[in-house]
Amino acid sequence: MSMSRGCLLCIKIKMFIFNLIFWLGGCGILGVGIWLAVTQGKFATLSYSFPSLSAASLFMVIGSMIMVIGFIGCLGAVTENRCLLLTFFLLLLLIFLLEIIGMLMVIIYREEIDSYAQEDLKKGLKLFGKEENTELTNAWNIVQTMFRCCGVKNYTDWFQLKNETEVPDSCCLEYSPTCQTDPSTWWKEPCYKKVKYWLGENISALGAFAICIVVIQVLGLVFSMFMYCQVLRAEKYYE
């Protein structure tokens, strides 16, 4: 039994260290979200349907979730509480399954999602320049300046907002008093295409990040279930 107890202690330490790192990672992500909210508060979402969806809010929500799950895991490891260990396992498993389902949905309905995203972004253009939507306005200006693009599918997307000959300043290659009405001074490439191309160029980095997340989650599932079984075995031995 001493060997079994030693094994449990070893798993307990590993489980605690893993969840401590997990929790600290959540703190870091939450911190990034808060930093984005404070420093980039005017850079929000481009989405018409999800106005509250922004990088800052996503980071804060994800960071908070990781912190809560990590805390449950740490507490379960320290106290050797089967209920907490099982809760940690189930929460992590639920997130893991949701990620897989989400990935499959994106693959299966890629074209539909692609089409919906473009139409949703085009709807968002109607809110550009309005006082109550300064965040969206700033977001579009930043994206168009950063990616040197204009509109969602084409610079003509802006014509529904302005008129048939005018685009925002951020569409101009170089700002001038007349650049908004001079097509020869506009970026010609669509922003949706440019952003997709940028994502494609950075797919290896995104893939590596995704693999790291999966490995961390699998390790968490293995550690928590193994410790749960060890605690259960120890409890049965002492009964």
UniProtKB/TrEMBL annotation:
Gene3D superfamilies registered for this protein in UniProt: Tetraspanin
Localization in the cell: Membrane
GO CC annotations, alphabetized: plasma membrane
Disulfide bonds: C150-C172
UniProt keyword list: Disulfide bond, Glycoprotein, Membrane, Transmembrane, Transmembrane helix
Topology in the lipid bilayer: Multi-pass membrane protein
Transmembrane portions of the chain: 20-38, 58-78, 85-109, 203-229
Top-level taxon in the UniProt lineage: Eukaryota
Family note: Belongs to the tetraspanin (TM4SF) family.
UniProt-listed PANTHER family: TETRASPANIN (PTHR19282)
Protein name: Tetraspanin
Organism (species): Geotrypetes seraphini
Gene: LOC117367816
